[in-house]
Amino acid sequence: MLRVDIISVVPDLLLSPLGHSILKRAQERSLIEIQVHNLRDHTPYRHGQVDDYPFGGGAGMVMMPEPLAVLIEKLQEERRYDEIIYMTPDGALFQQQTANRLSMKEAIIIICGHYKGIDERIRERYVTMEISIGDYVLSGGELAAAVVVDAVGRLIPGVLNDETSALFDSFQDGLLAPPVYTRPAEWRGASVPAVLLSGDPLKVDSWRHDEALKRTEQRRPDLLDDEFFGKT
Q1: What is the average pLDDT score of the chain?
Q2: Based on the domain organization, do 91 and 148 belong to the same domain?
Q3: 98 and 130 co-located in one domain
Q4: Is the residue at 201 inside a domain?
Q5: Residue 218 belongs to domain with CATH number
Q6: Residue 164 domain-assigned?
Q7: 140 with 181, same domain?
Q8: Are residues 88 and 56 in the same domain?
């Protein structure tokens, strides 16, 4: 079972994405345990203060080091963590292979940044991995953390009803997924490719691979560069 502890100043943002559908069922079946911690409950400062003005001036606020250190060290007293992850726009771009590796861990902490981010000394002392989900800025790291947990959680054995389905997702083999079809075979003048109705699994697999390669060449030719897909 994977244990995920998420540190946030607005934990309610995570209630819906982590409390429904696949992740809800995975938690009910004890395949993954997700605990969201309100940083304000662990600050030593009055009135739940967790942020202050940046040294050197400038707009915005910075998350203070002591509240984060107090909570991280409290969690570390309870168990060993394989990774302490900070969600940040300047982190490494999140990719499927990163999700694959994280799904094999036993316990991780995810820090959700807010305001202008966290004090650099926390990053230097505690953080072992920094992740970005794209080249844009969100109001906080909560939605990004939910993306990571969802991508990782669905890879844990037993979480999906069909345990092989995750193996055929886009990016698992470096390619985008091929087109998919369902009933009816004829719909408003458009037909399902005959090979999918042939009952020949070898022909179907070959068609799917060819279509995946074609789609990747058209839409994401960068994925065909081994150097790009090797980045994590």
Answers
A1: 92
A2: yes
A3: yes
A4: yes
A5: 1.10.1270.20
A6: no
A7: no
A8: yes
Task: Give the tens place of pLDDT for each residue, 119-161.
Answer: 999 999 999 999 999 999 999 999 999 999 999 999 999 998 7
**Are 142 and 180 in the same domain?**
no
Are 12 and 74 in a shared domain? yes
Q: Is residue 121 part of a domain?
A: yes
How confident is the model over 168-207, as pLDDT tens digits? 555 567 889 899 999 999 999 999 999 999 999 999 999 9
CA 174 – CA 231 distance, rounded (Å): 12
Residue-level pLDDT at 228: 46
- Pull the structure tokens for residue 48: 């739940």
The answer to whether 108 touches 138, Cβ cutoff 8 Å, is no
Q: What is the pLDDT of residues 91-112, one digit of tens each?
A: 999 999 999 999 999 999 999 9
* For residue 232, pLDDT beyond 50: no
Q: Are 37 and 140 in contact (CB under 8 A)?
A: no
Residue 151: its pLDDT value, please? 96
CA dist 228 to 45, 86, 124, 223, Å?
45, 22, 27, 6
What single letter denotes the amino acid at residue 7?
A: I
Same domain assignment for residues 117 and 27: yes
Q: Residues 148, 85: contact at Cβ < 8 Å?
A: yes
Question: Which tokens is 152 given?
Answer: 């990782």
Domain of 139 in residue numbering reads as 2-153
